[in-house]
Amino acid sequence: PLVLGIETSCDETGVGIVRGTELLANTIASSMDEHARFGGVVPEVAARAHLEALTPTIEQALETAGIALADVDAIAVTSGPGLAGALMVGVGAAKALAVALDKPFYAVNHLVGHVGADLLRDDEGDLELPTIALLVSGGHTSLLHVRSLTDDVELLGETIDDAAGEAFDKVARLLGLPYPGGPHIDRAAASGDPAAVRFPRGLTLPKDLEKHRYDFSFSGLKTAVARHVERMRDDGIEVPVADIAASFREAVADVLTKKAIAACVDLGVPRLLLGGGVVANARVRELAAERAAAAGVSLRIPPLSLCTDNGAMIAAIAAQRIMAGHGPSPLDVAADSTLPVTTVQV
Ligand code: ATP
Ligand code: MG
Ligand code: FE
């Protein structure tokens, strides 16, 4: 089926067009620049930007795919989780399109979409299920056991405070690096010593592992970095940005990959899929590859354009549902900012 997917859960206005698992267009407009001076995504600004960007982004995606709107078999949209106002723009537009074109409407879970992004790559063999999936972005840090992309996703664990990307952004800020901080920390870390400071690994003590085996926590780490930097400044020592960036990045990459591989081993699922913007991180990729190989786990990392928020992954999930014979979502589905990942069929 030819599906147009709309994604507006955060700061990317994404419109994707797929035919089954074939990627025809993946057009993105980002309002990132407008949030930079606030040091984080401002919900009102994001919603307004979606409203302005959506029509031109749809037009551009259609042009790239070389199709007309009337050719589309179904309209898909992220209905949650995400920023409420931002989601509402996409959901409203998708419903209007579906009604106007008399096409079926599919509401898609954003996190399931991130897993489905892997279906669209043409550089590797097919995604095999079940798989463990680690989704790490500015808003999410979730470890999933995915048995089916159309109806069976289990949440193994998630962050109990900050998301991994959020931690990168906050630590970048206190090191005086620009927003979004992830890429800047990654770059600074390249010339630093990851063993310079042993920062805490959240929720990895034996007592934590009982209740939070697959959960994450990054706010303690962020505080530890802040204290360390403050102490140096108080003592008049110049802050070694590269060493701190490298040590912080090491702590994040260590916990993320250790828990993800542990889930693969514990559950006997020898496959790990990564998704979300933090997957761009060089050390996360390197350590994931190293540990996956050591544990006999096959690692999949889609290209970055499919890892970050996009509409194509949303269209891909709707296409899976159509191919599995599932009917459309009711037109009264509302945007749900806290939609749980286990709600696979919205
Ligand atoms: P959502 O959480 O809803 O998916 P988002 O816009 O926060 O939305 P992405 O666009 O997937 O998510 O990812 C952006 C995040 O990824 C930011 O927090 C950014 O700092 C982080 N990031 C990007 N590149 C890197 C990198 N090289 N290393 C670490 N973090 C990175
Ligand atoms: Mg983003
Ligand atoms: Fe996302």
UniProtKB/TrEMBL annotation:
Official protein name in the record: tRNA N6-adenosine threonylcarbamoyltransferase
Main location: cytoplasm
tRNA processing keyword on record: yes
Cofactor section: Fe(2+)
Function (record text): Required for the formation of a threonylcarbamoyl group on adenosine at position 37 (t(6)A37) in tRNAs that read codons beginning with adenine. Is involved in the transfer of the threonylcarbamoyl moiety of threonylcarbamoyl-AMP (TC-AMP) to the N6 group of A37, together with TsaE and TsaB. TsaD likely plays a direct catalytic role in this reaction.
Keyword Zinc annotated: no
Enzyme class: transferase
Record keywords, A-Z: Acyltransferase, Cytoplasm, Iron, Metal-binding, Transferase, tRNA processing
Gene name, Swiss-Prot/TrEMBL: tsaD
Domain Gcp-like as annotated: residue spans: 22-315
UniProt: substrate binding residues: L135, V136, S137, G138, G139, D169, G182, D186, N281
Family, per entry: Belongs to the KAE1 / TsaD family.
EC assignment: 2.3.1.234
Record-level Gene Ontology MF annotations: iron ion binding; tRNA N(6)-L-threonylcarbamoyladenine synthase activity
Subcellular location: Cytoplasm
GO annotations of cellular component type: cytoplasm
InterPro entries from the UniProt entry: ATPase_NBD (IPR043129), Gcp-like_dom (IPR000905), KAE1/TsaD (IPR017861), Peptidase_M22_CS (IPR017860), TsaD (IPR022450)
A Gene Ontology biological process term: tRNA threonylcarbamoyladenosine modification
Gene3D superfamilies: 3.30.420.40
Signal sequence range: none
PANTHER family: TRNA N6-ADENOSINE THREONYLCARBAMOYLTRANSFERASE (PTHR11735), TRNA N6-ADENOSINE THREONYLCARBAMOYLTRANSFERASE, MITOCHONDRIAL (PTHR11735:SF6)
Free-text comment on the cofactor: Binds 1 Fe(2+) ion per subunit.
PROSITE patterns per record: GLYCOPROTEASE (PS01016)
Residues annotated for Fe cation binding in this entry: H110, H114, D309
Catalyzed reactions per annotation: L-threonylcarbamoyladenylate + adenosine(37) in tRNA = N(6)-L-threonylcarbamoyladenosine(37) in tRNA + AMP + H(+)
